[in-house]
């Protein structure tokens, strides 16, 4: 790979990406463009602008954007249509944000004539894969720079020395190692590393930053009603809202009631197991509610097909293949199923759990006439069941007869 | 089908199966053998003996058995190795009991020279299918009698008239319709029908019979440690126990802490949607713990294959195909994966939720050496990630290059 | 089911459906509408009109239609995009025609105010299921009449007696039993029954009606070039043609060269095994060619997903679920994959086999630059493979280390 | 990776692996052990011994073994139980041989105290992955040396110079580039590269080395009867034979009749497409026959599950994951299905095609009594089909009713 001339850096404004910024300038003598996105991580973005300017980035090379609506509308919601869970439990909060960042990095590269993008993910994790597969899928000629895999700043001491040598301000609380590493966006906060590295030790309480401990959540349950149209949430308690507003509001509710915490050991794409603590308050409610509305509006054939496709879909997103033809094929199938997933679900929130307690819809497939214990006025002929069972049993009978010959 | 001469009836001792007993005698003039099983439903069995005798069954034709250990060891535990959930949420508590009952019905038919078995499931539900597919798979020549699909006792009034005409005692509280229908065993209690028939109405509190309402559960969380060997739970808090004892103990813990309640609209095999309330206290803890121990002892390739097979496996059990070659094939694959699923999980129980907070095992695949944020002494070369990503990206680059030609 | 007032009958003009026509008139005293479709079965349709008139059908109640283009365009081609094979071998020639016939039956019922449709399939086969599931999916209120499951004309003798009693003309060669039963359309000819009922006996030569015996096919191979656009064949040897014309032309070529014969024992949806002989000359070439063009234009992620979905897709069509949400979901995924399946394939036809020998496309993903044994000018860095392998091996190494502890 | 001290080399005796042998000695100054296996590639092995000795290998370090029986019994036959085809067409002839070679390399390393193994696969292909994943799975501490990824002998000229400089004899016909590259074993011969690199150009006739061109095959068809026990072929034309003998005999038959040639563009695991010509004469017959015997002895539930698992199974083998827990899980499921796959198949061989024409078995599930067009003496009640269809249709009717509301 020839040296990059102009690099778009995913820049948070924090110490690490500031070091990367300076390292890119010194290592490659290249022009740096910074991209700082508001994904709902809950931090002010303007300080990133000031810091970038201080580090010598031209104002026209500083991109700061609020991408929360795009994030929820085009990434989070399509994923939730699939009821996606990685390894049965993980709501993919980090995984789903990476392709959007890469998409903007590549677009900004094209706008600014940059030939490379750079990110601050390490060489051990999944995020490097997600960033880079997305970037290559969107621009096969783009260069991707992953400083953590390249440089020799392999210890905290060396990083701080580099920062000092290049006049990068170091906040007091950044002098020592953080007790764990955090990633946050509108969908979730994840924590991993250091104090969490032994999966046989419980995570200390201070790891949980976003969700109230269930023990401290309100003593009274709270009901929330979520309305869906074609598989996407569109209103809360009767009030229509934009996608990001909905997720924000569900985060408030879930956070208050201790909902969506997960302590997980998962399998990284790069081959190792890692332990993380995830807080996904709004997403956990949303998944529960989406399942609730599908229960009455989705046909069993469609639902069972979705259940069967889901693990593969979730794995693709986890592994970084959002921008792949197979993810798009699965999305086409999933989206096709959501045409009538319209209606309202009531979810009960209480001290760590979110449970569907009622759901209704004009699009309901539930037929009280068929299922009732009362007289059904001929909706269903119980005699039909006999033929149904007998033909389903036919092959089993033939098998049993055959097998008996060889016992 | 020629008329049966001797019938083995799945007999609870309750009013409905007593009516069936008498109906079989009067309709077919056949000898009736009763089979009453203790599956952990929490009822005394001896009254069933007295009642059968009173209805004219010869003592040698009355079978009363405690099958709880067989139920958990040979049915529940194998199913939990798969992390089976039907439609994402249902723990299959009724589905998994039916094949065992059918197996004993057929075995008793063979022991007593009976040519038929009979059950009390209606023509609208899944249980008729499960009973009958199992029976036919175990004895292709057996006759199966499903009185609810045959007789003309199609109203409560007619049933009571029949009972009175045949001196079947009717408990006072059975005169009226029950407000909902219940099935129970060691794994779960399910409720459905009547007051639950509108899925847009919340289930009334009195439906929940087995699990404390989360709001009334203890204010202090409780930890439980579950040890596994080859995928099966073998000890609780360090004390080795038999399978049924383990599930009983987990039921007590879960019931106390409000764990395992589910309000679900599901798709029946016979083609309609139905709404049920399930209480699966011990099973919910067991599933959480099993996932917890798999997180550190199961390889990702094995785990992802299991995730992919699971929905099909669960559907087979739900639909009544426990005794089918494809369920046995899937079981062989699943069991193969459990050879090292050995270790201990700590689960926190609190007001409706059960969450893994720690897990450890001599069989752990988790490598702190690989995952650590600290120096890893060469366990992992971050440079490897570059090649890994580049080759995973190769096809995406070729795609992007091709697709760009046609934009 | 109340008695039908007006019935649309799938009418071939042959003896069996003429008997059904008359039986409907006499049994239900209902008005009959006949629908006779040209699906490419190779028979004149006008005699069916004359016969229907002779049997008392009003001219305005006689529908005779050439649906070949619709059949190939809307049913055969979408299915071939999936490379669908049932049980590894069967090209689904009968299965794919049934939903089209049902669709027209229901549409004609709506046009003519009929309340029922009727078909001539027996109670043992798959076709009854396909006809009826399609009809119910398109009109849930329609009545479906399947005379073979209802009437008492259960022997050849009784059928002929009924025909004679009702002045239905009987061709001389219809007096005796046919030695086997045939279904034909533009995609295939199938034969089953009687002389084919022992799968341990070879099918006699006279069963093969459409494809030249390979031993009698030309001694010289013939090449054919098939062009595809977005997954559908659009031209043969450079000449653009309509869908039905393409299949007709491929049938001629395949029939001439002995291609597409299959002797199969398959599993019917109704639970039994049956043996059939299939002749699918054009379809066999088309499948081979479609695979050939996908080889260079379809990405591996998309292709492997298709391979994984295909058996389920084929099973749905075989079982009669063409008009089901899950088939439509799978179709959406498959169609999404075909956007660049455009290019040309050369297939060699010779004495029973059709083999792709060359394929080329502007949309090709094949990169000679990457794969070449020669210098590749940096297109591919072989060093990348090391990291790729090492990270793919990581979990296997951790497993081996763990497992070694317990040996 | 520290330098290896003693290396076991997969050694063919040819020029390339002789260069590798010498390069290992000179580059690492390490002791070399050679392993030469007879996998049925059709070459004498003793010349490899002489050549190894000439290159300075101690006789005790020269391993020459006939592994044909192990190859067919433990690798080929288990794979054929799955009817494995990669990308719909490829019989995996190269893929299935690699794990066996790696297994022996690692075993010999353990016997001889070697710390490394080496292979002659290039950095662009799949074989490097297969060799190395297998080696790491069997010994996580083993070093693997892949000279083609390491050395600077990147052109034919340099290789020949190195050979001359080290007194490695060069056969006259090895001076120039071979027109294509070949791999062979008892299952297949594959050819790729150079003259085959343009998939739009037909492969020249001289590429086909093992199978007679169909045009030149005998004009008379030949029948062969293959007997199976539990899914494995055990006899040909009534004569019991060992696994390798069976495959050898089928190769002779298939080769004579022009069977098993395939011109394929496939997707390599490392991300690129490549074009290969495969000749798999015996394997093609074996697959056809195995399917034939499964048709009558395998239940549809088992068969459809196998069809669904197969693409994943084949992909695992293609990608080099033979020694992985997920391949072993799938194998457990597949093997479970084969318990009654016992019986005999007659296959007709003629000018390039192998077709099942008859099959019979004491374990047959085919029931003429059920399927017959004649009177079936009550084996099957056609009325059952009505209930079967009506319940299968129920959800489709509910869907149609719902959907109609929104049109």
TrEMBL record, chains A, B, C, D:
L-aspartate binds at residues 122, 126-127. Belongs to the argininosuccinate synthase family. Type 1 subfamily. It catalyses: L-citrulline + L-aspartate + ATP = 2-(N(omega)-L-arginino)succinate + AMP + diphosphate + H(+). Its EC number is 6.3.4.5. This is Argininosuccinate synthase. Keywords: Amino-acid biosynthesis, Arginine biosynthesis, ATP-binding, Cytoplasm, Ligase, Nucleotide-binding. The keyword DNA damage does not apply. It is an enzyme of class 6 (ligase).
């Amino acid at each position: 790979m020839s040296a990059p001339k102009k690099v778009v850096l995913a820049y948070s404004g924090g110490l690490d990406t500031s070091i990367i910024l300076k390292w890119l300038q010194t290592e490659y003598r290249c022009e740096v463009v910074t991209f700082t996105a508001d994904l709902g991580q809950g931090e002010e973005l303007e300080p990133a602008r000031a810091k970038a300017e201080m580090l010598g980035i031209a104002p026209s090379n500083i991109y700061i954007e609020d991408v929360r609506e795009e994030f929820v509308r085009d990434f989070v919601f399509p994923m939730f249509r699939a009821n996606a869970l990685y390894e049965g439990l993980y709501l993919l909060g980090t995984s789903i944000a990476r392709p959007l960042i890469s998409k903007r990095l590549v677009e900004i590269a094209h706008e600014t004539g940059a030939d490379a993008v750079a990110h601050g993910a390490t060489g051990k994790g999944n995020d490097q894969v997600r960033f880079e597969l997305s970037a290559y899928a969107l621009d096969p000629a783009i260069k991707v720079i992953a400083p953590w895999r390249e440089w020799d700043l392999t210890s905290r001491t060396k990083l701080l020395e580099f920062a000092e040598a290049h006049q990068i301000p170091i906040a007091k609380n950044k002098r020592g190692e953080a007790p764990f590493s955090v990633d946050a966006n509108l969908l979730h906060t994840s924590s991993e590393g250091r104090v969490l590295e032994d999966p046989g030790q419980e995570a200390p309480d201070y790891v949980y930053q976003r969700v109230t401990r269930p023990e401290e959540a309100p003593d009274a349950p709270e009901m929330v009603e979520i309305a869906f149209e074609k598989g996407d949430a569109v209103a809360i308690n009767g009030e229509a809202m934009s996608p990001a507003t909905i997720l924000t509001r569900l985060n408030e509710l879930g956070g208050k009631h201790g909902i969506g915490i997960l302590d997980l050991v998962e399998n990284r794409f790069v081959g190792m197991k890692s332990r993380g603590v995830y807080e996904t308050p709004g997403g956990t409610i949303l998944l529960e509610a989406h399942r609730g509305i599908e229960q009455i509006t989705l046909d069993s054939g469609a639902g069972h097909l979705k259940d069967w496709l889901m693990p593969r879909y979730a794995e693709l997103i986890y592994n970084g293949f959002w921008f792949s033809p197979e993810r798009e094929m699965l999305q086409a199938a999933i989206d096709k199923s959501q045409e009538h997933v319209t209606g309202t679900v009531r979810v009960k929130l209480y001290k760590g759990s979110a449970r569907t307690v009622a759901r209704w819809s004009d699009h309901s497939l539930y037929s009280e006439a068929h299922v009732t214990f009362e007289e059904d006025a001929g909706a269903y002929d119980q005699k039909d069941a006999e033929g149904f069972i007998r033909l389903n049993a036919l092959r089993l009978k033939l098998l049993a007869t055959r097998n008996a010959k060889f016992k």
